[in-house]
Design goal:
Length: 481
């Protein structure tokens, strides 16, 4: 009996008094209910950091036009692509560094630093006076905001195992909704002197900088979140298990159980050698698939807004920035309901790989309908476009949520920051190519309205479908395992 009791005592989790990660683990053991407060905290932090990424898309067409850098109207999409991709290019250069910092110094400092970057550089972007200033501010915003990789690791570590799918789903939901509400805010608040002349005069700062108001609104929200983030718990374990192990169990190793017990202790508390992330195929395969879908998603986000505001004669919808904002707001509401209520059940029923595969495949016929939607007018156009937009964004976000889960389950806690940093670097490179390539293809397609094969916007959505099809293929073995 004494031997069994001693073995059980050794196999129990040992918590270190001054370790923030141990405090979180201890709290998780004692609390078994749904962690509402933690879910809301993560949701708000991720939301405010995702808003600036796509908030410019509804007014980017008009912003580039006002810079007077494009010689022809058809060239505006080309220059808009470079402004759109500069943030992701900056993020690609620094994501691994931010991931390593998160593994060394904690997730919380990286979260706070990233939110501060939003406050400063998103505000300055709204005050851009020329094309190059706009690119520089977006680049700096991307370089200094390395939050997205560590926050995924943070969400995995903050919740009990039965709620981890919900935690990661919360990250991707908030991110996806931010990518939709961001353009909604941008479309609704841009050019306020023209939309609300009784409130904003043309001589005011919002009249002289017509795209400053949406940026300022997002930056103010980020400032509030930055202050509130100071009270977030840290989840990284900051203790030296091996040294403390030797001290706290020195007397046990001198017992007759020395050979068997010592081995068990080191399994429980000792640190195993770190595995090579590059040779971790489950991780790398999930990252590769994630990159392909990210390329498609970012290109789609820019092309959708450009297509919606472009004139009817070029195959667009002749929407205003406010119209685009309304469509995206409705899509955001649909995402919130689906991801919080339905996705966790889909994950338990089908598993993340099958969810990603099915949702990716369903996106292809949906995208093929877009050129024909442009033939509709009035109420029928509004109803169909809103329904299709909701479904498309739900499918895309389900794919990303599934791939997030696969990435974080493929590595241990002490490598999650670096692993997500690698994922963010690769994803950012692909997302940087998305707006640049999407803007270039959009401009090229608008110049071939009378082509015999896939004229005008049909070519744009055909190329988007080709990228999506490659992503779906990457969800099959031997790619995704």
């Amino acid at each position: 009996m004494a031997v069994e009791e001693q073995n059980e005592a050794l196999l129990k989790k040992h918590y270190h008094e001054n370790c923030p990660g141990c405090k979180v683990e201890k709290l998780k053991e004692s609390r078994r209910g749904l962690p509402i407060r933690e879910l809301v905290s993560i949701w708000i932090v991720v939301l405010c950091n995702s808003l600036p990424i796509s908030s410019l898309f509804p007014f980017l067409y008009f912003m580039v036009r006002d810079f007077h850098i494009a010689e022809r109207e058809e060239d505006i999409g080309y220059y808009a692509g470079y402004v759109g991709c500069s943030l992701m290019f900056g993020r690609a250069l620094t994501s691994v560094l931010w991931g390593i910092m998160a593994d060394c110094y904690g997730r919380k400092p990286v979260i706070i630093m990233g939110t501060i970057a939003v406050v400063i550089f998103n505000t300055l972007f709204g005050l851009s006076v020329n094309f190059w200033m706009a690119i520089a501010m977006r680049f700096l915003l991307g370089s200094l905001n390395g939050l997205y990789g560590p926050i995924k690791a943070y969400a995995t570590e903050l919740f009990r195992e039965e709620y981890q799918a919900l935690g990661v789903s919360t990250v991707s939901t908030a991110w996806g909704i931010g990518l939709i509400i961001g353009p909604a805010l941008g479309g609704s608040l841009a050019q306020p002197a023209e939309k609300f002349p009784s409130i904003f005069s043309k001589e005011s700062v919002f009249g002289r900088f017509p795209y400053f108001l949406p940026c300022l609104t997002i930056s103010f929200l980020a400032l509030v979140v930055c202050v509130a983030s100071c009270w977030l718990p840290e989840t990284l374990h900051m203790h030296h298990a091996n040294s403390e192990l030797d001290e706290s169990h020195e007397d046990v190793e001198t017992t007759p159980l020395k050979s068997g017990v010592k081995c068990k202790m080191q399994k429980v508390e000792g640190k195993a050698p770190k595995k090579s992330l590059i040779r971790n195929w489950p991780l790398i395969s999930a990252i590769i698939a994630y990159c392909i879908f990210s390329l498609h998603d970012m290109a789609y986000s820019e092309i959708f807004s450009l297509w919606a505001v472009s004139p009817r004669r070029l195959g667009g919808l002749s929407y205003t920035t406010e119209d685009v904002g309304t469509v995206l707001s409705i899509s955001g509401a649909g995402l919130l309901v689906f991801q919080t209520c339905l996705y966790p059940y889909m994950d338990r029923l089908l598993g993340p790989i099958l969810v990603a595969r099915i949702c990716g495949a369903l996106s292809i016929p949906l995208l093929s309908s877009y050129p024909f939607i442009a033939m509709l007018t009035g109420l029928s156009l509004s109803i169909v476009l809103n329904c299709v937009s909701v479904v498309k964004n739900v499918l895309s976000l389900s794919v990303f949520t599934s791939l997030f889960l696969l990435q974080n389950k493929a590595v241990d806690q002490d490598q999650r920051g670096a692993a997500n940093g690698i994922a963010m670097t690769a994803m950012s490179l692909f997302k940087a190519a998305g707006p640049a390539g999407g803007g270039t293809i959009f401009s090229w397609a608008q110049k071939r309205q009378d082509a015999a094969f896939l004229p005008g916007n049909q070519m744009i959505f055909f190329i988007l479908n080709a990228v999506e099809a490659i992503g779906v293929l990457m969800t099959f073995k031997p790619f995704l395992v």
